[in-house]
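Dock zinc ion; give full complex structure.
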Amino acid sequence: MSSCYREAVARELKRKTLATISAMIYLRRVHGMYHYRPNALPPNYEFNLEFHKPKQDRCDTCELYKMKKDDERYQRHVQGKQATKAERDRDRERVKSAPPANNVGTEHSGSNSGLEAVICFDLENVLSCPRANISNFFYKRKLSVYHLTAHCSIDKRGYGAVWCETTSGRSANDLASALVTILSMILQQHSAITKFVLWSDSCVAQNRNSVMSFALQDFMRSHSQLECIKQKFCEPGHSNIQEVDNIHSHIEKVLNVSDIYSPLGLMRALLKVTPKRPLSIRQMKGDDFKDYQEAARKLKYSVVPYSEVKHAVYKQGADYTILYRTSFDEQLQEVELQAVDICSAVSTRSSGRKKQKTPVACPAAMKTWPAAHLLHSKPKLSAEKKTDIKSMLKFMPAAS
Ligand SMILES: [Zn+2]
């Protein structure tokens, strides 16, 4: 027998043995009908078995292309997807070659060298309280808890800001306030950071808007060590922030096997996620939320086409300018956020008998950076939700 033939026979035997074992496991586990008997193997080895492929959300644009409905848009989408991936990979590589976290950036290191932090962030799906496998809970309205999760490239740790629907909602103001809180936490840990690169999905309502731009510029004004903050956005339908997706999947695993009756219990459970490198979490209070939206109205953010922006840059000392581009293949362009003079916007110019409200740009000397005040409106639980939560109390342990 030639060695070639022997190898072929060995390969075939291995394949058949594996197929047989898989079949036995399959039949026993799934149908409970096959018991191992050495002399009674099934007559053939071809079974309808395959490895489970993980499910993935399918992107609308890619799906439309499969239906051959929108070719041009699809080409642009694919180009954007590839350019975004390349940009994300470049950021990852740059971070990899940076010095390790325990040598720079901590308060004890005494290092003054500039440090770049790449932060990915995303709002987790609403977490509801209470959560336990009690059938009474199933159809009841529950308390919604929001969790903005971030991953920091310097210490490879997860950071989070948690708040309940009774503290605030999940509007652009709330997301911007939560992100500012997380950036402050990261800066406390790594005081040598001079640049932030923020990656997020391209949701216009939450991340890609004037409220977030103003909040980041405002944050930079109060942290003079920061040179710039860059915002980069994933291609719609495709996530490039796998680091955060990974944290969310760990959280889901822990929550699926935990009984949680209160936001405090939820915080405790979140701290158990990734025990080797626990999440650094802050519970947001009422005065952590600011009305950035109101302040942003005083600047002319309308010059930025937010629904197309892929990359925005805010620089220290250049409060009234933003650099942006709508594709990672283009050059950044600079735009001026001329301050809108609110006084002249509400009175002045009359045409005919009606007075028109015309926004008028102030002269440069009159520019003052608008202040972001606290958000005063505190949301309330609906009466129905209150009743439902009260009705579940009898199933909850006293200390939870
Ligand atoms: Zn797609």
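Observed: Residues 103-112, 344-354 have pLDDT under 50 and may be disordered.
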